[in-house]
TrEMBL record:
Organism: Actinosynnema mirum (strain ATCC 29888 / DSM 43827 / JCM 3225 / NBRC 14064 / NCIMB 13271 / NRRL B-12336 / IMRU 3971 / 101)
Pfam families assigned to the protein according to its UniProt record, in alphabetical order: Imm1
Matches recorded under InterPro entries: DddI (IPR025680)
Highest classification ranks of the organism: Bacteria, Bacillati, Actinomycetota, Actinomycetes, Pseudonocardiales
Top-level taxon in the UniProt lineage: Bacteria
Identification of the protein by name: Immunity protein Imm1
Length: 147
């Protein structure tokens, strides 16, 4: 069963979020986002299941051909999970921006942008933390935590 997604990507979405109802709408939105976010942009978007403001949350970041994910929901630690690139990627913590807010991500959290998009599509389909990517439990200022 596919869920509509409610997305926040800019300050005006606080009053009127963007809604995507089909996988094709998500793919088209990602294509526009990729065009508008060249390498160095480090932009974040927050996805919720439409109609479930207190349900799971998926944050997706984009920086050219790579990006990051953070999921928080019923199945995780109180800090949520961050994407993990098993081949290694960013050796140090990286910062992405939700509006103007700094949002740190752990080492090795940057994954190919195609994996970010696939994870959002899986979240739309299941409403759960995507299984197509690897995850790590990490707390800013503390480091990795046991799951």
């Amino acid at each position: 069963m596919s869920h509509a997604l409610k997305i926040y990507t800019s300050p005006d979405h606080g009053k009127e979020p963007l809604f995507l109802h089909t996988p094709d709408e998500v793919r088209a939105w990602f294509a526009r986002w990729r065009e508008a976010s060249p390498a160095g942009s480090v932009d974040l978007a927050t996805f919720y299941l439409a109609g479930d403001d207190w349900g799971p949350e998926l944050n997706a970041g984009l920086d050219g051909d790579k990006g990051v994910l953070h999921h928080s929901g019923d199945d995780d630690t109180s800090y949520g999970f961050h994407s993990r690139n098993p081949q290694g990627s960013n050796p140090d913590e990286v910062v992405y921006y939700f509006f103007a807010a700094d949002t740190p991500f752990p080492p090795h959290s940057e994954i190919p942008v195609t994996d970010v998009e696939s994870a959002v599509l899986e979240f739309m389909s299941t409403g759960l933390r995507p299984t197509r990517v690897h995850w790590q439990a990490w707390v800013p200022g503390v480091g990795h935590v046991p799951v």
